[in-house]
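Lab channel / #folding
Pinned by the channel admin:
"Please post every new chain as: sequence first, then the structure tokens as a reply. Keep commentary short and put observations after the output so the thread stays searchable."

First post following the new format, from NK:
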Amino acid sequence: MIGLPCFIKQAAFDMQLASVFDQRKGAPGTNGFALGTPVAARMSGSREHRQQSTYIVRARWALLSDEPSDFIEDGAVLVVNGKIGATGTYTELRKANPSCKVVGTTSHLLMPGLVNAHHHSFGVPTSLHGIADAPLESWLQGIRSLRPLDARLSAMWTACQMLQTGVTTIIDMCGLAGSAENVDQSVRGKMDGYASAGIRAVVAPGIRTMGFLLGGEGEDERFAVQLPPAIRKLAATWMAPTDRVSPEQFFDLFHAWHAAASTQPRIDLWFGPPGLQWVERSVLEEINLRAERYDTGIQTHALESRYEQETSQRSRGQSVIAYLDSLGILTPRLSLAHGVHLSDADIGALAGTGVIVVSNPGSNLRLHCGIAPVGKLRAMQIPVALGMDATTLNDDDDMFAEMRLAWRLHSNAGAREPGVGARDVFAMATRVGAQHLNRSIRIGMLRPGFKADLVLLRLDELTSPWVAPEADPFILLMTRAKAPRRHGYCRWRGRARERPAHPFRQAGTRFRHCRCAQPDSHPPWGFGKRRGVRSLHPEMAFAVRQRPA
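Reply from TO:
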């Protein structure tokens, strides 16, 4: 098992913080430090704020939610014991709380923490593992050649990346493979890693019970007979894996994981069946029953590619959404990742169910899937959230760039579907992504009673060299905001003095050196298996293209 070096471990722990600061000297009102760009502020009762539980966060522009009435010039929020106590103008809150510490200046924009509603904690991008972008079904074969990384440290590294880009909540779907012991260590490692990093996280584990090669009932066998003999032998070993967790073992483990997650205030556990083409009906029915029993959520991939819809019609005689409806799973507990190939009939069936669709525009473009009908979904009052899927367009896990892409793709949809505005995308990345979480955790907006998960952005990077007074802050946010990658950070300790933390640039360099130094001979992840994976790519792409529409 390859572990991340201690520098990254320390950097992740240094992100367990109330807010993250960019080390820039000379900014007024911040004791020589300017607030980070962004500051992913986890002001939720961590140990850094035990000494000072009430303070004011100030900004020139306060975007408390996507509602027009929640935009305040020279606005501020009062944070009391990790929750929003009051909102208003800075003058009002300062007058009512003259002795409170003030964080932020008129050079900042204040907004809720972002919610990455669909992700996978690979630790490093798949491209750095040598897996090139390809049509989804071919690309998934490449995932078999991912080098094994320590689950805990990968989750911590993922959390660091998220916090740098303003994400304070992540939903991590983790596909599980291997023995029960390995699966148990992986899920517990992810939960512990996220808890140590200080981010709010949902871990959604799931297993495959069929379709281990291509996916879909009977599809593996149909595909395998078309393969050349040399490749068919390798494919046969993947079609019937021997070292895997049974559904019974998985449900027993889930019960133990759920108990462990209940002791972590920022960690939640969902069911994450990888997709209907990989999970048998009886297992899906049991997941639905247990999700209700545990009062927890379900997230699954759905209609990411055209092939999935075709195989569902061929093997079941009904669409993916109709199949979910027959299982009784179309409830507010369910979120569907992608939904690129939802038909008008599917959208009509989802309306009024409370199911959330999570759009992942960058991933869908890179893996040749298409563009989700976000405008049509929103027109039918179906909530749409935003995710990065660990496969953003620029391969940088920048949530602001993903928001910008979603806005560009859907803002001028025209006759095809209703357009999506800047405020709508802002809602997708905050309020809508949050509404599917544990109902006792109120995030996604900065209103009294909500958790103080918030972000501060430096306005000089949004408004330089100058900005007209009538400029729309939401449009500026969509057009110009980006995650920083070049600055060091220091963490706020609730004292008069801030200490610098390990720069992420240094940690990332150490991480790259660690990866490059590893020999490429550890079975089954050596050259031989990767050559086999590559040999399947053209065969898989040809088979998918030949399927009847």
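NK: Residues 10 and 111 are 28 Å apart (CA to CA).
TO: also worth noting, Confidence is low (pLDDT under 50) at residues 1-39, 41-51, 485-510, 519-528.
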